Amino acid sequence: MARPLPDILKIRWPEGADRPPADTEAALDRAADILRAGGLVAIPTETVYGLAADALDAEAVAGIFRAKGRPSTNPLIVHVSDAAMARRLAGAWPVSAEAIAAHLWPGPVTVVVPRGPSIPDIVTASGATVALRCPDHPLARRLIEKVGRPLAAPSANRSEAVSPTTAAHVLESLGNRIDLILDGGPCGRGIESTVVDCTVEPPRILRPGPMTRERLEAVVGTTVAWPDTPLDAATAPARSPGLQSKHYAPRTPLEMPADPLAHVAALLAAGHRVGWMTMAGAEPQVRQLAGSRELVIVPMPANPDDYARQLYATLRALDQRELGRIVVDPVPDTDAWRAIYDRLSRAVTQR
Ligand code: TXA
Ligand code: MG
């Protein structure tokens, strides 16, 4: 029997207030009760919405894998309210993890460290390491404090689909599979955290994200390595099973051609309906094509932070328009765009 749709409770913490309003506290209390009883609650973070369960309760965590349809070989990130909680969960605490926690937490960066004995096997996919993150979202941290336990939380979408950046996205993806959605509004960052393997010297980025390599190197004091390229299941199964190349994908076939203008024109000529995410919307040749009824042009920001914030909502919106193809302009090949390039290249349809 299908479960009913979950309640969606709005939560907020007004600028300057020393605590959240009473209705928000009540919503967090209800979420904490559900989590302590082994349930699943979708929560906002600064990156994307997470699907949370008590990280120390193996049964509850099993519910995350079922709701997402996630393979059990893909380990979860454990969310903590502060660095002290992280240290208690780790089997060892490398200096690079300490530097990141001290200077960049709370923030959009996850450290992979040796796992301590309290973490159930299911969280780490039986691996020897655990991924830990302190989110830069005061209500997410307050919820963790209320539960009094760390929360395992992958992105709150079905496995391999686009991550959610609003409560409505979560409802669309996981609707009747979860117990409650906390709605904190759209996520400020819009793409998943940077994941850094702190068990190796020098530390290595496993998943590029909003925290740039430059900032990591500045606090760690050594070089920080980029992922092996391409980082996919074929080349790096042991290091991070979840980082396969097919991921973050809309259902509509997506392409990132070197010459998007020519490509879009050719697709239109062949009778396809096309969605085009472009940074060149003002250019005359683009404006010429813009008259076509078969073409949906979505202007994308030229700044990587703004681009990231809009990326997943744009992919989801285009996915609902019955298009034959989504075409994305190639993004600049620079460190600042690395995380976006990574997500787009994983979304590109493999043939
Ligand atoms: O921003 C984020 O990180 C969001 C929010 C909700 O915090 N969470 C998120 O979780 O993106 P998820 O499960 O969608 O992605 C976690 C990634 C996966 O690629 C997984 O393979 C990797 O982190 N990971 C988890 N534990 C790991 C470990 N012990 N070693 C290596 N990689 C790990
Ligand atoms: Mg995910």
Structure description:
With 351 residues, this protein is an alpha/beta fold. Helix content is 33%, strand content 16%. The protein has twelve helices and 14 strands. It has helices at 22-36, 58-68, 83-89, 95-104, 121-124, 138-147, 167-174, 213-220, 260-269, 284-289, 304-319, 338-347; strands spanning 7-10, 41-43, 50-54, 77-79, 109-114, 129-133, 151-152, 180-183, 194-197, 204-207, 254-255, 274-278, 295-299, 325-328. The protein has a ten-stranded mixed sheet, sandwiched between helices. A four-stranded parallel sheet has the order 11-14-12-13, sandwiched between helices. A hairpin with a 6-residue loop joins strand 2 (41-43) and strand 3. Helix 1 crosses helix 6 (138-147). The radius of gyration is 20 Å and the shape is globular. The relative contact order is 0.14. The model is unreliable at 230-238 (pLDDT under 50). The structure holds threonylcarbamoyladenylate and magnesium ion. The site of magnesium ion has 3 residues, from loops.
